[in-house]
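Whiteboard transcription, Tuesday session. T.W. wrote the C-alpha cells on the left side:
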C-alpha cells in the first residue's frame, strides 16, 4: 500500500498489486510523447552537415528515445499524486497501483544513466552532455520546480522538449550551431500554445490537481492572447532553417503555409466562446499543433540542403 497526496492535502491510498507487465513499463516511458521527441531528434541528425555511420546514427536515436522515456518515468514517479486525480492520467501504471513508486524511480534513473553513458561512449560526449542536460531540465527544473509553482511552467519547462534536434545535430557534428539553436527555438515557441490549447479544455482537471496552468491562474482571455502571440512569433521563426541554409524553397513554402494555419487556429481559439462550444477550436488547435511539428520537421528532411545522411 502506498499513499499519494497533493501539496500536503489528504493522502489517497493506492494498493500496489505488483502485477505489472512489460506493457506497463513501456507506458512509464510515455511512448506517445517519445514519438515526437525521437522524430525531431532524428531530423536534427539528418539535416546536420557531416557524416555518421548508420549504426552510430541508430545508436544516437536509441539513446534519445531511452533518455526521453526515462525522464518521463521519473516524471510519473514524482507526479503520481496529481496523476491519480486527473482523468487524463488516471490510467497510468502508478495511479493504478501496478508498479511500486520506488521501482519506477529506479527504472528511470538506471535508464537515464545508461542512455547518457552509451551516447558518450558510442557517439560523442557533446551529444551525451546535451542529453543529460535535457533529462535534468525536464526532471528538476520543469517537474520538480516549475510545474506546481508557476503558470510559466510550460514556457520555461518546454525547453526540455526542444533539445532533441540539438542532440541529433551534435551527434553528427560534435557541437552546437546557430542552425541547431533555430530548431530548438521552433519547438520552444511551439510548446506553450500546444499545451495551453490542452489546458483550456482540461482546465478543471488542472485546477483540481493544483497545477497552476495559465488558464487556471490567468483565465481564458489572457491565455488565448498568449497563444496568439506565440503562434505569430512562430510563423517567421519557421523560416530560419531556410535562411540558415538547412532546407530549401520547398521547405520555406511549406513552413509559410503551416505557420499561417497555426496562426489561424490561434485566432479561432481567441474568438471561441469557450465552454459554450465545448472548446472545439482549442481541441482542434491541440491536434493541429502535433501535425504542424511533424509536418514542419518532415519537410525539413525532404528538402534538407546539407544533411550528410540523406
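and on the right, the sequence the group agreed on:
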Amino acid at each position: 500500500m502506498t499513499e499519494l497526496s497533493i501539496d500536503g492535502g489528504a493522502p489517497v491510498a493506492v494498493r500496489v498489486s505488483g502485477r505489472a507487465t512489460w506493457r506497463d513499463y513501456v507506458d512509464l516511458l510515455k511512448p506517445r510523447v517519445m514519438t515526437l521527441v525521437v522524430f525531431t531528434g532524428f531530423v536534427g541528425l539528418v539535416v546536420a552537415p557531416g557524416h555518421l555511420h548508420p549504426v552510430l546514427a541508430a545508436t544516437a536515436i536509441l539513446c534519445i528515445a531511452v533518455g526521453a522515456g526515462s525522464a518521463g518515468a521519473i516524471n510519473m514517479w514524482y507526479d503520481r499524486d496529481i496523476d491519480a486525480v486527473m482523468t487524463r492520467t488516471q490510467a497510468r501504471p502508478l495511479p493504478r497501483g501496478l508498479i511500486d513508486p520506488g521501482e519506477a524511480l529506479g527504472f528511470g534513473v538506471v535508464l537515464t544513466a545508461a542512455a547518457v553513458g552509451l551516447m558518450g561512449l558510442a557517439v560523442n560526449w557533446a551529444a551525451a552532455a546535451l542529453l543529460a542536460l535535457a533529462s535534468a531540465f525536464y526532471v528538476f527544473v520543469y517537474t520538480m520546480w516549475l510545474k506546481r509553482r508557476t503558470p510559466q511552467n510550460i514556457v520555461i519547462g518546454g525547453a526540455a522538449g526542444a533539445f532533441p534536434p540539438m542532440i541529433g545535430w551534435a551527434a553528427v557534428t560534435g557541437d552546437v550551431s546557430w542552425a541547431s539553436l533555430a530548431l530548438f527555438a521552433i519547438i520552444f515557441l511551439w510548446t506553450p500554445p500546444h499545451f495551453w490549447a490542452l489546458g483550456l479544455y482540461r482546465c478543471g482537471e488542472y485546477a483540481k490537481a493544483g497545477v497552476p496552468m495559465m488558464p487556471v491562474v490567468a483565465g481564458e482571455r489572457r491565455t488565448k492572447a498568449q497563444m496568439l502571440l506565440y503562434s505569430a512569433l512562430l510563423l517567421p521563426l519557421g523560416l530560419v532553417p531556410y535562411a540558415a541554409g538547412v532546407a530549401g524553397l520547398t521547405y520555406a513554402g511549406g513552413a509559410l503555409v503551416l505557420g499561417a494555419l497555426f496562426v489561424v487556429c490561434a485566432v479561432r481559439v481567441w474568438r471561441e466562446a469557450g465552454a459554450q462550444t465545448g472548446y472545439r477550436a482549442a481541441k482542434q488547435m491541440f491536434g493541429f499543433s502535433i501535425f504542424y511539428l511533424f509536418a514542419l520537421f518532415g519537410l525539413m528532411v525532404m528538402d534538407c540542403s546539407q544533411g550528410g545522411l540523406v
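Someone added at the bottom: The beta strands are 2-4, 12-14.
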